[in-house]
Amino acid sequence: MYLFHNFSARKDLCDEDKRIFHYHTGPVRELRKGGHLARAGEILEHLHLIEGGWACRYKPMRDGSEPITSLLLPGDISDNGQGFSNRMEFSIKAITPLRFTTINAESAERLFERPRILRLFKISGHMSHSVALKWIVNVSTRSAEERIANLLCECYSRSHAAGLTYQGRYFFPLTQTQVSNVVGLSSVHVSRSLNKIKRRGLIENCANQQIRIRNWPELAELGDFQEAALE
Fold first, then answer.
1. Closest by alpha carbon to 82, among 109, 48, 44?
2. Same domain, yes or no, for 107 and 6?
3. Closest to 184 (Cα-Cα) out of 139, 152, 137
4. Could you tell me if 169 and 210 lie in one domain?
5. Sequential pLDDT tens for the chain (231 residues)
6. Is 189 inside any structural domain?
7. How far is residue 174's CA from residue 156's CA, in Å, rounded to a whole number?
8. CB-based contacts of 208, cutoff 8 Å, min separation 6
9. How many domains does the chain have?
10. Does 116 lie in the same domain as 164?
11. Under 8 Å CB-to-CB from 89, ≥6 apart: which residues?
């Protein structure tokens, strides 16, 4: 489980914790690209643990727009602190084909009796909150290139924590339209800014929706990215 990989960087779960965790999670399920794990207004009955692929939380608006409020990568938990039996404020949609498992309220209660597992969920919630705050700062204070550089660094750092990077490469399936949604820019502005970042030799596109970071220190400096904020 990528969730365990993320957590092991801080403090390993014991074998018994892992056994109990697996016992209380449902089987791995699949969801097509564009499918929904949950919709705004629905009662939250399950937590979703992302095992493969990317998803996003978004807020459905009256005008039909869907502003993205956060990204969910392998190892992430879908709950945004709303708690079971509450109505979802946000929808969760698959950006790519998705693999996930579920945890119901009764199973979560059993899991939270284990101190290390409870800490695991608290860490996940803290990271989700930290990323949300960073997004607010990113959109409200930074230039176009800085916003995009920060997003690229964030996604690389989160992928690296889950063991999903190789020689500076990582999976980045967002379209320019989705990037523009996240960073609050037009698609044209995103395209121009990405090209500027590429011309500076900081990143390059690779096959299979991958990006390679060629100069991490300079990209992180451009985006004012502080990795400690995600820890």
1. 44
2. yes
3. 139
4. yes
5. 556 666 554 456 788 988 999 899 989 999 999 999 999 999 888 899 999 999 999 999 999 999 999 999 998 998 755 567 788 889 999 999 999 999 998 999 999 999 988 888 888 888 888 888 889 888 889 999 999 999 999 999 999 988 899 999 999 999 999 999 999 999 999 999 999 999 999 999 999 999 999 999 999 999 999 875 555
6. yes
7. 13
8. 171
9. 2
10. no
11. 40, 59, 80, 82
Q: How many CB atoms lie within 10 A of CB 111?
A: 20
CA-atom Rg of the chain in angstroms: 18
Domain identity same for 63 and 113: yes
Specify the length of the chain in residues. Answer: 231
Cα separation, 21 vs 83, whole angstroms: 19
Torsion angle (degrees, nearest 10) of CA 64, 65, 67, 68: 80
Rounded Cα–Cα distance for residues 207 and 199 (Å): 18
